[in-house]
Q: What sequence folds into this?
């Protein structure tokens, strides 16, 4: 029986689980805690954001990356992955297999207009920009432009910067502005939500108007290192991380019961929940 996709047995915290918890710093730089901060890679080795899979077997995960992900990774994405790996908060970036999955999903959907909440250095953003058609557009929102500017030269060199409309600021404020414009009702084919986890339900209510019927909203980190199912005893979660864990449990419960969407809760990376708008 192939069990490779089951998540770590819990409660049984491990370094891997700890690594997978990203949003501590994604959302609150003041209270946040630095990650264990392995600085990764040269070629062929994993960036630390590629070490946050919940797969039981690290060897198997490495196998997936080396067999099916890295050999097909666009040169620009690889370059940005390596730049991001040198960032002290590199664990915030999406994993390579996850962005490969998102790219395929966008192609299957024929997505043209997307919105991304939480950009960091632009790794998932670049994957999206490389995937969308020439006239596609991504509205990319982040409160911090500096990290985006680290990745921007790579995005420009890849010839996809014209697809990106970067908006600097608090996502909720920017989204509320979009809600006031008739043009944006049902405008987006896809939304990737990967910023302040405690606002996910606020984003959800609004994105259900901004994303078209049949479109998809993806929420990242919805397994929060496995802690949504059982709290680790040996490495207890602290303050803000615990608050995010609780917010994620709430989000998961809400999404599971929301009749306006069809959902699919994937165990890829740190958990990704896809919500297809039904009405
Ligand atoms: N999606 C990126 C990727 O996979 O490469 C990673 C995004 S990182 C996990 C989260 C980002 O959200 C950070 O860059 C942070 O500055 C941003 N962020 C956090 N809270 C925010 C807010 N309220 N509004 C806008 N951006 C926010
Ligand atoms: Ca994430």
A:
């Amino acid at each position: 029986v192939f069990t490779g996709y089951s998540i770590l047995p819990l409660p049984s915290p491990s370094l891997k689980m700890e690594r997978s918890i990203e949003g501590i710093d994604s959302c609150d730089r003041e209270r946040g805690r630095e990650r264990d901060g392995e600085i990764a890679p040269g070629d062929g080795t994993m960036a630390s954001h590629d070490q946050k899979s919940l797969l039981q077997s690290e060897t198997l995960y490495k196998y997936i990356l080396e067999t099916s992900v890295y050999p097909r990774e666009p040169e620009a994405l690889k370059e940005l992955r390596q730049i991001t790996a040198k960032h002290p908060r590199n664990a915030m970036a999406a994993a390579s297999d996850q962005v490969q999955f998102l790219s395929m999903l966008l192609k299957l959907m024929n997505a043209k207009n997307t919105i991304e909440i939480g950009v960091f250095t632009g790794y998932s953003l670049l994957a999206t920009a490389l995937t969308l058609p020439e006239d596609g557009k991504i509205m990319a929102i982040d409160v911090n432009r500096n990290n985006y500017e680290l990745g921007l030269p790579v995005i420009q060199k890849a010839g996809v910067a014209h697809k990106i409309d970067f908006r600097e600021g608090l996502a909720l404020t920017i989204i509320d502005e979009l809600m006031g414009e008739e043009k944006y009702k049902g405008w987006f084919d896809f939304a990737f939500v990967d910023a302040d986890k405690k606002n996910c339900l606020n984003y959800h209510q609004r994105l259900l108007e901004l994303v078209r019927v049949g479109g998809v909203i993806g929420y990242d980190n919805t397994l929060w290192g496995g802690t949504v199912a059982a709290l680790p005893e040996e490495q207890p979660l602290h303050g803000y991380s615990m608050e995010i864990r609780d917010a994620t449990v709430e989000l998961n419960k809400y999404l599971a019961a929301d009749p306006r969407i069809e959902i699919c809760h994937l165990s890829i990376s740190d958990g990704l929940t896809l919500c297809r708008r039904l009405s």
